[in-house]
Design a protein that fits this description.
This protein has helices spanning 41-50, 86-95, 114-127, 150-155, 171-184, 207-212, 219-236, 248-259, 270-274, 296-308, 323-326, 343-352, 359-374; strands at residues 2-12, 17-26, 29-34, 55-58, 63-66, 68-73, 98-103, 131-134, 136-137, 160-162, 187-190, 203-204, 216-217, 239-242, 264-268, 313-314, 389-399, 418-428, 431-435. By secondary structure, the chain is an alpha/beta fold.
């Protein structure tokens, strides 16, 4: 199947392309890409003949980018599939424009061995909607005591490890994992949380938590482990990526780590760079996530980090739960919100429309940079590369309604918010897997 996408604004950060033109897909690869301005019907016919085109997509008024990549999702499969499974999660991903997702290992059982790792990878390929990259856990059972079967999982294609949902509190064990990650050229994704400081916290520690009578989570909970992980990465030479950064101090530490030549990167989620603790309307678990919504000062530091390029990635931490679970008090409900179907419009609306990021900078953080951090051949639609492509309408306004989500999870704090940016096509290896 050969496809011609024409008259769209083509944005490809890998080579600083941003302009009106066309893309030709031959089977699963990009055959041609040209920034030539709008083309007329005669030119379309000529291209159709020249490249044996079977399908045309008129992308006038739309934006054509490399397929989006999410470094941080929870697909809950195996074991917790009432919340989400690989099929429903993949459908949510492509509706949000994501052609590659990185699935965390805190499933039941934990992904700490080759058998479970291959189960997810094979199921992702069977569903065939998005590239599912399964993360291996750092320790067996995520108990923080004994390393998982990192060697054999890596030999079977695993490229990322994480203990997401918690930190490995034994620094000695974690250092061994980082040395092994360095040896196997595996990226370490770090959830930074000192469990000894949490003290049953459910939201940010401050005036709002005091007012609501809820236990708070201080910045130190994140900062202590962030500092430790960066220092261990410096010693071991491992590639460290900090998940869902939420504090101003984390941004400062990433900035300093980069200056010192440490292989450290970080991500921020839309809920953390848009909302603050002041947006929480009482005891409402739709606003309960880990790390929590922080202060305005922290939020502003995250925005500054994004604008400066200190923060290289926007991820979702897509964490679906049942409505029954999230209808409880914040004291009892699980942490987490969904994000795959809202990340692009939220990020476009609150970063590009406000002038904090250019469009090409946004796509870098949602596609090219994540691919570079993982070391995968994605996030780039240059000629010869795999045709994973997202096409969206940046002018389309709509109101976020969780009842329209295809994810099993409807738990979002963004209900009723007006945004711009609607995915029209998601293309995986040359095949249209979603049409909006």
């Amino acid at each position: 199947m050969n496809t011609l996408i024409y008259n769209g604004r083509v944005v490809n950060p890998a080579n600083d392309i941003d302009g009106i033109g066309f893309v030709v897909i031959e089977n699963d690869k990009v055959k041609a890409l040209d920034i030539c301005g709008e083309i007329n019907d005669d030119k379309v016919r000529n291209l159709t003949t020249e490249y044996n085109i079977d399908k045309t997509i008129d992308a006038k008024g739309l934006i054509v980018t490399p397929g989006l990549i999410d470094l941080h999702v929870h697909f809950r499969d195996p074991g917790l599939t009432y919340k989400e499974d690989i099929e429903s999660g993949s459908k949510a991903a492509v509706r949000g424009g994501f052609t590659t997702v990185v699935a965390m290992p805190n499933t039941a059982p934990v992904v700490d061995n080759v058998k479970t790792f291959e189960y997810v990878m094979n199921k992702g390929k069977e569903v065939g909607l998005t590239n599912v990259i399964q993360v291996g856990s750092v320790t067996k059972g995520m108990e923080g005591k004994e390393l998982s079967d990192i060697d054999n999982m890596a030999d079977k294609g695993m490229i990322v490890i994480s203990e997401d949902g918690k930190s490995v509190m034994d620094s000695g064990v974690y250092r061994k994992a980082m040395y092994k990650a360095k040896d196997k050229d595996v990226t370490v994704l770090a959830h930074c949380e000192d469990i000894n400081l949490v003290e049953k916290g459910v939201m940010n520690k401050g005036d709002v938590s005091d007012k609501l009578g809820l236990n708070g989570i201080s910045n130190a909970v994140e900062n202590v482990i962030t500092a430790r992980d960066i220092m261990i990465a410096e010693e071991t030479g491992a590639k460290l990526h900090l998940c869902h950064c939420s504090t101003k101090e984390s941004i400062d530490m990433i900035r300093e780590g980069k200056k010192r030549g440490i292989k450290v990167s970080g991500e921020v989620c839309p809920h953390h760079f848009i909302l603050t603790e002041d947006d929480i309307p009482g005891d409402n678990a739709m606003y309960k996530m880990n790390p929590p919504l922080r202060s305005k000062e922290d939020r502003d530091a995250l925005l500054a980090g994004l604008s400066e390029g200190v923060v290289e990635v926007i991820s979702t931490d897509h964490a679906p739960h049942s409505m029954e679970e999230k209808s409880k008090s914040m004291k009892d409900a699980p942490f987490g919100i969904v994000g795959l179907e809202t990340s692009l419009p939220l990020s476009y609306t609150y970063l590009v429309e406000t002038g904090r990021l250019s469009l090409i900078e946004l796509i870098s953080k949602m596609s090219y940079n994540p691919a570079r951090i993982l070391g995968i051949d994605k996030g780039d639609i240059s000629v010869g590369n795999v045709a994973d492509i997202t096409i969206f309408d940046a002018n389309s306004k709509y109101v976020i309604d969780p009842d329209t989500f295809v994810s099993k999870g409807k738990n979002t704090p963004f209900t009723g918010m007006e945004v711009k940016g609607e995915v029209k096509y998601t293309i995986l290896a040359g095949k249209v897997v979603y049409t909006g």
